[in-house]
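[Backbone geometry]
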Amino acid sequence: MASAIKHKRRILVFGICLVILAAFAAQRCNRWREEAQARRLAARVKTEFLHAWRNYERYAWGHDALRPLSKTPHDWYGQSLLMTPVDALDTLILMNLGAEVAKTKMLIVNDLSFDRDIYVKNFEITIRLLGGLLSGYQLTNDKRLLQLAEDLGNRLLPVFNSPTGLPYVYVNLRTGQVRDPVTNPAETGTLLLEFGTLSKLTSRPEFYDKAKRALLETYKRRSPLGLVGRSINVETGAWTDTDSHISGGIDSYYEYLWKCWLLFGDKECRDMWNASIPAVNKYLADDNHGELWYGHADMQTGRRTETTYGALDAFFPALLALSGDLTRARRLQASSFKMWNLHGVEPEILDYKTMRVVAGAYHLRPEIIESTYYLYHYTRDTEYRQMGEKMFNDFVKYCRTETGYAALADVITKQKPDEMESFVLAETFKYFYLLFAPTNTLEFDKIVFNTEAHPLRRTW
């Protein structure tokens, strides 16, 4: 009798083992299929990136950008600062496009000069060119890129010569003259990653100190509720618009509070983030029929002023995930994806109460893809790769042209303007690629992306 019971137990144990092994094998098989599909998608992204890049080479080489419909070059300020080559360099490197990297780097070190009598927008030049040169230097160890970055940093420093230390909007690269005192928190507070990295790599503290002061001066002017406004005068320090939100004009101010803590270990930045994010979640977050959105509120009263959310707001799930709030990140990403699916591509601005498009353009923006990538990194949930695949298919379907990728003037009609911003190569394609590429393509936990997706690494 005992022998029969033992035999039955052995059969039962053996059966359980077989079930576990079968489940494990099925899981391994599913994982293998997912990775194979991801590799195919990464290859597709790379192919489409090259379609845009090679047409830039053909029709706009040496210029800031390609106009993809007219097949003509475009320069921001009437003369080229090589916006697209500098912005795209680290994407070329991450995609292992060796010949293109060599050609692009040669163009930059031989032709890029900042000795130009032109007024440039400090914020855009900092995140695209200074950030691109610094990440390019860290990825290639070519000191000529660092020398260009230092020269640019020197020419941008006069923007901080305001009574408050908040930067002016424009600076002349040759004369150092500044102009336009009315700016916003994104443009005053999205400088420390780049200027701080330049400071550490050149051992020149003034770069760090001036950008850090600008961030602090912005933070110090928050309202008693803990919110910042839409626009501020750098000469008086007074707010000129008290509307508060997480969209363009404020967005990357919050992003850099947390990221400067990550990159530099700056505890003041961490403390400013910890003091700011509760107010954002209290006054700007909006639960609408069980969906999480972030709208607008008056910085002084907290009163809801707009129920709008858009393409630029869609970076916030990434920041929430990066700072450890995965619950909110997942909910907000679901809302962003709903916005995308309304018309097959996200609009610039949506009224989430009525689900009506307020501003219908799509400028090939990367933020929703960035958040998809971050959420996949932190959860390894296949849902986010599937989400990314849907968006990539839509992106190709509606924005691909014969000679590159074009923005949409309206997501409903899908009419295209003659526009392909450098950030589509610096950010949008990069985040699509990293979402599907093998996880060892980039050491995510050893770098911090600036707001233009340039990876910066702590080497000091």
User: Anything to note?
Assistant: The chain has 15 helices and 20 strands. The first strand starts at residue 65 and ends at 67. The radius of gyration is 24 Å. Residues 379 and 447 are 19 Å apart (CA to CA).
